């Protein structure tokens, strides 16, 4: 491949995304797969990576910057957490080198919060935040996902954050709980549906009733034959509403930067608007992680010299 | 078996409990098994029941009163819900006859709540409440379980109730979520432990933070190496505290009758005391369900005549 300067990879629990970038960060090629952490550990992380690189004919010596769970204890090489308050420079400085790799491969660390603010961790979201921080962003950012993050950025640093298990609870409840029959056969959640909006409203107004409202999804199905689409939309809304009620403690009712992609983006935008939260900006999470990895690669690999 | 007047059975989603009683309700024999709904449907409800009765040499013609999920749509015969406000007499009158059974077999209905109070259902707990209602109980009752019930009793009737998915959430989170590794290897929850008490306090004070506190169980394990016993106790405490915060809407901070057995009884007693809730009385759930079934059997089968 001609003009490739470096490779960036977002390697998570359940997905692998790789981009070949030129020196300016433009995408020359990409690869995606479901080779998450467990599958990759079994196959061998280097084998997985090099197979994708070979498919793109990436020359030896082209360096690779990665982020995500690949840097966890169960990953390829552990990239120890950087503690809050954590700045961009600190993350890049602490990028872990993979000593066994045949080319320069580094993994960005996650961020840990300890002490009075409460133990919390992120891996991957910090990289999505990097481009915003470089552009001078300050305030609260919301990053929806399996484990949604609400992150406070001050003076170019992540000063504190809270993770909500919203996405994981949604998945567990819809697939493995007594609520499952009530949502069986439902398609995706429509962010414009009344059931979603009511769920958001009820979850926000009474997060203490969440455990009861969840059971009532089943009761409404048993007693009233409530349909699966409305039940799934209400389930999603209740969980988002309860998350927003908690996030309000961090100023989550003021303006926020929403960093999201896929269906979550539309759901969170609709729910944030309903909750009266102004979204100052919305950003595609994938664009953000790629831009963050690019910035880290340029800094860590001193690309102007290496490409000479 | 000599002196047996009738059989009572509590047949739930995951367990089968049968007692042979004399006319006064004293226990002459009992049988227990894990033959819940799914297993019994496959084997045949009558086969399961008659096998247990044969093992106790119960004569033909001895009648059987049952309650629980065996009366649900997925059970042996559906015993349609009685709507709130629901009294003792109504439940017994509406006990469904199993037409195919070779002996008199009846199943008590559950109770449904519809309309403005919110859809909700119970099956089995109403039978646990019967003896209290017969003794003139009025007020709020708490029945912990996979799906905990908070039930208001007025003038001998169940006037309203709310179900909280506390037990099911506990099971899902400890076994199938990202919290699982943090509690792996933990024994049972010690109701006297500080971790449990702190969890109750935090869940009660900030139920909106539940989704975040759950994730922090994992973070504390990752960052601080928090032990599984403390993490499991905190998980249990957080969920109970959040339930109590919701139950407070129904007067759940006033005195309550606690109907529970097994480990849940001690956990709820400790947590209720910590939450400042006075338990007027505590009752063993198994004694209650047996007494309720006995009362219903005496009424439905007119036993003084049948045993002549």
From TrEMBL, chains A, B:
InterPro entries: DGOK, DGOK_C, DGOK_N. One of its GO terms (biological process) is D-galactonate catabolic process. It comes from Ancylobacter aquaticus. Keywords: Kinase, Transferase. The keyword Kinase applies. One of its GO terms (molecular function) is 2-dehydro-3-deoxygalactonokinase activity. This is 2-keto-3-deoxygalactonate kinase. Pfam families: DGOK.
């Amino acid at each position: 491949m001609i003009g490739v300067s470096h490779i960036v990879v977002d390697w998570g629990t359940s997905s692998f995304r790789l981009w070949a970038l030129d020196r300016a960060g433009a995408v020359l090629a990409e690869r995606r797969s479901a080779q998450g952490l467990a599958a990759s550990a079994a196959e061998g992380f280097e084998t997985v990576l090099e197979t994708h690189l070979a498919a793109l004919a990436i020359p030896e010596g082209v360096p690779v910057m990665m982020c995500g769970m690949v840097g966890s204890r169960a990953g390829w090489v552990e990239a120890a957490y950087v503690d809050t308050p954590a700045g961009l420079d600190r993350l890049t400085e602490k990028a872990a080198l993979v000593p066994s790799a045949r080319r320069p491969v580094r993994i960005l660390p996650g961020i840990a919060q300890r002490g009075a603010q409460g133990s919390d961790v992120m891996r991957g979201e910090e990289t999505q935040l990097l481009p915003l921080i470089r552009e001078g962003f300050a305030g609260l950012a919301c990053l929806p996902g399996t484990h949604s993050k609400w992150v406070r950025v001050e003076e170019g640093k992540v000063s504190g954050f809270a993770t909500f298990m919203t996405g994981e609870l949604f998945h567990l409840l819809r697939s493995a709980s007594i609520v499952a029959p009530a949502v069986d056969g439902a398609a995706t959640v429509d962010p414009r549906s009344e059931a979603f909006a009511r769920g958001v409203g009820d979850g926000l107004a009474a997060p203490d009733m969440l455990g009861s409202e969840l059971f009532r999804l089943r009761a409404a199905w048993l007693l009233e034959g409530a349909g699966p689409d409305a039940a799934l939309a209400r389930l999603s809304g209740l969980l988002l509403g309860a998350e927003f009620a908690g996030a309000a403690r961090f100023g989550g009712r003021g303006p926020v930067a929403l960093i999201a992609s896929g269906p979550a983006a539309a759901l969170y935008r609709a729910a944030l608007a309903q909750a009266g939260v102004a979204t100052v900006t919305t950003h595609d999470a994938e664009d953000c992680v790629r831009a963050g990895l690019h910035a880290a690669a340029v800094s860590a690999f001193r690309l102007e010299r290496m490409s000479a």
